Amino acid sequence: MMNKSISVSIDHLDAGIAMKIAIAGLGPAGSYLGALLADKHQVDIYEGQEKDRFTSICAWATAEGGARQLLKQIGVNFEDYILHKGKKMYISAFNEIFSIDAPELVTFDKPRMIHDVADGLNVHFDTFVRQGELDDKYDLVIDATGPYRKVLGPVQTGRDMILPTFQWLVKYKELPFDDFYIEPFSNFTGYLWYFPLGDHDAFVGAGDILKHHRAKVEDFLKRYPPAEKVRTMGKPIRVAAPSSVTPHRREKVIGVGEAIGTVYPILGEGILPSMFAAKLLSENLDDAMRYSKSIKKKFSAYDLSYDYILRKINHKDNFFNSFPAAVRIFIWFKRNFMITGVNPSLWQTLKVLRPRRKG
Q: Is the pLDDT of residue 123 over 60?
């Protein structure tokens, strides 16, 4: 039976009361949150894809140390899913290719991991949900639908940013790069990625707010022709930070993961951050206001990076506003390489983040 006090307000719930909870979306945030909550609450997860065709449309890269730590808490061994362990990331910028240390960066079988995380949970596959249709059936509804915010509703700040993306899964006879490779676009409107997946497979993709991403990918594949183009995929990605992606809640609906902006704007990585957000929600399930404050505090560095990117895109960056921000971004990277997977030097950070020329 629905707890009537919950239907009125989710600002202060009783964490000791078992609730009927719906989660929309079976991505990293939704599946991990479901696993965290299932022991204490009745959890239903709604996923639009068919079970036998379920996949995850992204480049499948994250930081090994952080993922291992989080998944251990639900009895899942992250090592079982790793496809490629990185040592370095090649970066092409200003007509120069150089490498930075990437001691924790890996690609992994993300769809298989999500399937295993969700094993034993009550997942409704091939079921699309719309705003409002779950509200009367559950004590709490959680939006983990990424950039779509299907049950939470649109962002209202006017500061949202969603990039279209496109990528190929390709096979090479001889890999063009033995490790991760990226090309940031001029004025940071997006970037191209090449991520190895083991067995001479790789994802080659790009995202670009100017919508040149498909052309950039095809240009790379002309320069480095694969033996086989297997399939294409693509979806939008939100790169706006949590303080710009509000509201975080609507009545009894709460957002988590990319739905509230937990993708690091400079790297475009949201897998591990979304799982951290899910953990924060599980720890603050009784107080939506405290949860939102915790999210903004946890991801405050994302605001710095997002503002930095906005200045680049709008051609408002110069030495005086770029250099201090780049140093702060570097310090954050040094302190959080177990989360980002990469560990650049200050000089390497400045080489990428310096004021960029037009073009």
A: yes
